[in-house]
Every structure is written in C-alpha cells, then in structure tokens.
Write a structure and sequence with these properties.
Elements: E1 2-7, E2 18-23, E3 27-28, H1 30-38, H2 42-49, E4 59-63, E5 72-79, H3 86-101, E6 107-110, H4 122-137, E7 155-160, H5 166-190, H6 198-211, E8 215-219, H7 221-227, H8 230-236, E9 244-251, E10 260-264, E11 266-270, H9 290-305, E12 310-320, E13 332-334, E14 340-342, H10 350-361, E15 368-373, H11 377-383, E16 388-392, H12 395-408, E17 412-414, E18 432-433, H13 441-450, E19 457-462, E20 468-469, E21 475-476, H14 481-496
Parallel strand pairs: 1-7, 2-5, 2-6, 6-7, 10-12, 10-15, 11-12, 14-18, 15-19, 16-17
Antiparallel strand pairs: 2-3, 4-5, 8-9, 9-12, 13-14, 16-19, 20-21
The protein binds ligand BES, manganese (II) ion and zinc ion.
Length: 497
C-alpha cells in the first residue's frame, strides 16, 4: 500500500472514498462539517433521520453526495470526543479498513489525522494509520497454491487541514519502514520449520545485506566450536540442520559511536528435545524464531529509515530435536563465558543459545544490548497476549522501553530481576542449572541470562505471549518490531538534542 500525506479539504478530494469522523450524538468532526456544508448538508440530514449515531466503531458507507467529487463517503463513529484515546482511535482504524476492504475502492482519503486523541500527537496518528492500513492487507498466503484475493485498496491519502511539517513527513516514512519490518517479521514467523531453518534465516540475512546498507556475517558450527560456544552447540546436537550464528551490522553514524545490539532467539523449531513437549499445539513451536524475525525486521526498518546510529543484530539459530546424539537431561556443558551449565531440561533451550550469543555481543562494545525471545510459557500465563515481559539490569533502559512500547502500541510490562530469585538456579554439579523450578519461571529464565550480561546495559524481552496469535487467527504479529524501532528512533532524537 502506498501512503501520502497532504493538505486538502474533503469536499474537493477526488477519491474512490473519503473517510470522515462523526462523534457520538451525530456531532460532526471539523472535516465532516466542511464536507457537510459543501454537500447541501446531506450528512446533517442523515443524522437527523437517525441513520448515523457516531457510536464508536460504527460505520456508514454512502454513495456520492452531490457537491463533492469523491465516489463514496465512509462515515466512522468516534464515540464521545473526550473519550477518544489511543485504544478508541485504533478501534476506529480497524473498523475503517474493514469497511474499505468490503468495497472495490482502489484508493481512499482519510480525514482522521486532525482528530484530537487524548495524550497523542499528530505524528502518532500518522504512524498508527500507516500501521493499521498495512496490517489490514497482510495475508499469510505465501504457501497457498492459489494466493488469497489481493486487497484492492492500493493508495491511501492522509488528508489534513494544515500543510504537513517535515516532522509529519518523517513520521510517515518511518511508519512505512516499520510496517515493512513488521511484514517481514510476520512472513518469517509464519513459515514452517521445514522451510525456515537456521540456514534459511542466514540466507535471509545475506539477502537483506544485498538490498540494504547492512553487512551480514554467518558463523558455522566449526566457528562456534572455536569460540567455545558449547552451550549453543548442545542445543543443535540432536538436529540434522546445522546451527548458525548470524550477525547483521548497520552503521548509520560515526564508527566510534557504540552500537545498540539486538539479540534474537532463532529457534526454528522447538520440539523440546529429549525433554519432548506434549503433542498439542506443538506446531506453534515453529514460532520459536520470532525473536530472530523481529531483529531482522527491525534492522531492515532501521536501514530503510537511514537512522543515524549504529545497530547490530545477532541471531543464534538452531533447531531443538530429540535424537541419539541429542543433549540429555543431566548433561553439563561449558558456555563461551566459561560458566558450566547443568542441563536439567532440554526444553529450556532458548537460554542456552542466548547465553553464548550474549557473551559474543560484548565483542561489539555495545552501548546497550536488548535480547528478544519467545522464552517461557510462564510469560504467556503471566501477561497473555497483551504485553511482552521486560527485564533489565538498568532502570533507565527499562523505562525507555516501557515508554516506547506504550507509544507504539506494542507494550511491555516489567518484572523483577531481584537477587532473591538467583538461588533457584544453583546446581550441585555445575556453576548453574538451566531451570529454576515451577515458581517464577519467566524470572528465573531472565536470571539465567543475567549471569551472562554483567558487563553492559541490558534488557530482555520475553515475547512468548505476543509474537503470535493462536486459534482461528493463528499467525505471527510482527511484534516487537514497532517497539524496537520506536526505541531506536527515540535514541536518535535524544542524541540530536
Ligand atoms: N519456546 C519455549 C517457550 C514457549 C512455550 C513459548 C510456549 C511460547 C509458548 C521454550 O523453549 C520452553 O520450552 N520453555 C520451557 C521452559 C521450562 C522447561 C523451564 C517452558 O516455558 O515450559
Ligand atoms: Mn523449549
Ligand atoms: Zn524454545
């Protein structure tokens, strides 16, 4: 979908459909009022007749009213003006796109950017319109023999009363780049484990480096052996697919500026290994590489935006399979950091591949490291699909991520990393064990990672509940690409001040 923003008046707009907002009790938004005046008060008449109430999320599609060149008008209900907040605005957008997709409209002009939304600025509205529009046309049909019906809506104009300033234009471009990143993350996430293997992810990183100003490097198992990544390699032992350690570097500013390093769990299928998972919904463990997908999506977005900062993506990628050669409960391995790990459950494999990648991350002399992982089922129980779990060894970083997530509509919720939880990882035979018992499962997983991140500012995002949806709408969400890009954008803005 193509997006543009321009100063325009709805009653003059040539478009297949003009979208206007109407508040509760039939109160017209300013754009709808202008339109009403130009069309012999046809909207007011509809309101008087009771056809249009302005109830939040309601829609009414009308044919060409005399006096305006647009072919249709879509009136969307906004609810009460003082209740129009971020959530309501997003509901309005969803209803808008659902209604537009029911028509043969190839283009539409939305007059929603000027609506007052509580605690949100114009740039937020611009980016949310772009994200909702892109979301509404995504189809998971990569592997269907006949592609799903393509949405007809191709062009979207964001109409506004004042000439858009350069910040608004930047917001639009950044939102488009973020939407592309989300799409990439969804596509990779939805691919099955027989296609999306560690080698496939490595190829995708190399392909991104062809297309964007990114440098991709892929380490093979023998390279990881030399580096002493025996924790990571213990996970891939049972698999016929070789593990890969993928690095993507984006240098958007002075080489001396320390980079933000994003580390994404790239477990392309998690059967549990010898500690085999039960059968129900095991297919969903193809999504265990969504952390990696979000790193690829975010790096693509950052490169497309040309952000003036340095960002590095590191993806430890492996399968977790049972096999004669597979690692067994009780096995003890030595991590790259030198810490020995007793593997009591081979299904707690995410932390085993991440710990070596986190040790490796130190080579890039990071300013900040954020890892993203579908790490624990316990996080799904704690936070469901609404918020990702957030852990950090530095409170200002946690706060920045919380705020970026709130703004982007891709929220995180902080959980504690207190030392009181650490003893749950004590082992009788090794420096630590890879599980911490039933209690506080997401926290002890984060505690495990914290043993390997002592030398830098670090945050961990547990996206087990947010990276994909189950059930009828099964599919990857592309989260937390919006949060990560927003966090990075804010860092460049803070640096510019
Ligand atoms: N990839 C899973 C976590 C997961 C499970 C994400 C369900 C989303 C839905 C991870 O590798 C795992 O298996 N974790 C175990 C850890 C346990 C053995 C300590 C879990 O959460 O059950
Ligand atoms: Mn597992
Ligand atoms: Zn896993």
């Amino acid at each position: 979908m193509e997006f543009s923003i321009k100063q325009s008046s709805p009653e003059q707009q040539h478009s297949a459909c003009v979208v206007l907002g109407v508040y509760q009790d039939g109160i017209l938004s300013p754009a709808a009022q202008t339109f009403d005046h130009a069309t012999a008060r046809q909207l007011s008449k509809l309101i008087a007749s009771g056809d249009l109430t302005g109830k939040a999320g309601s829609v009414l599609m009308l044919p060409t009213p005399n006096g305006a060149p647009a072919e249709r008008v879509l009136l969307v209900g906004l609810g009460a003006p003082d209740e129009l907040g971020a959530k309501q605005f997003l509901d309005v957008l969803r209803a808008t796109f659902a209604a537009l997709h029911k028509t043969p409209c190839k283009n539409a002009a939305l007059y929603l950017t000027d609506l007052a939304v509580k605690e949100r600025d114009t740039n937020w509205k611009i980016s949310q319109i772009v994200m909702a529009g892109s979301d509404s046309i995504y189809r998971s049909d990569q592997l269907k023999s006949k592609p799903a019906d393509k949405p007809l809506l191709k062009k979207l104009t964001l109409g506004c009363a004042k000439k858009p300033d350069s910040a608004a234009k930047t917001a639009l471009l950044q939102a488009v780049a973020t939407a592309h990143g989300v799409k990439l993350a969804k596509e990779l996430g939805n691919l099955p484990g027989n296609i999306c293997t560690p080698s496939y992810l490595a190829e995708q990183a190399l392909a991104l480096a062809e297309k964007y100003p990114l440098k991709a490097t892929v380490l093979e198992e023998k390279d990881m052996e030399k580096l002493g990544m025996h924790s990571l390699l213990s996970v891939s032992r049972g698999s016929r697919q070789p593990a890969k350690l993928i690095t993507l570097e984006y240098r958007g500013t002075n080489k001396k500026q320390k980079p933000v390093v994003l580390v994404g769990k790239g477990l392309t299928f998690d059967s549990g290994g010898i500690s085999l998972k039960p059968g129900a919904s095991m297919d969903e463990m193809k999504y265990d590489m969504c952390g990696a997908a979000s790193v690829l999506g975010t790096l693509q977005a950052v490169a497309e935006m040309g952000l003036e900062m340095n960002v590095i993506g590191i993806i430890p990628s492996s399968e977790n399979m049972p096999d004669g050669a597979a690692c067994k409960p009780g096995d003890i391995v030595t991590s790259m950091a030198g810490l020995t790990i007793e593997i009591l459950n081979t299904d707690a494999e995410g932390r085993l591949i991440l710990c070596d990648a986190l040790t490796y991350a130190a080579r890039f002399e990071p300013d900040t490291v954020v890892d993203i992982a579908t790490l624990t089922g316990a996080c799904v129980i704690a936070l469901g699909g609404v918020a990702s779990g957030l852990f950090s060894n530095q409170q200002p970083l946690a706060s920045e991520l919380l705020e970026a997530g709130d703004y982007a509509g891709d929220r995180v919720w902080q959980l504690p990393l207190w030392d009181e939880y650490q003893p749950q990882l004590d082992s009788n035979f090794a420096d630590l064990q890879n599980i911490g018992g039933r209690e506080a499962g997401s926290i002890t997983a984060a505690c495990f990672l914290s043993r390997f991140t002592k030398d830098y500012r670090w945050a961990h995002l547990d996206i087990a509940g947010t990276a994909w949806k189950s059930g009828k709408d099964k599919g990857a969400t592309g989260r937390p690409v919006p949060l990560l890009t927003q966090y990075l954008i804010r860092r460049t803005q803070a640096a510019a001040q």
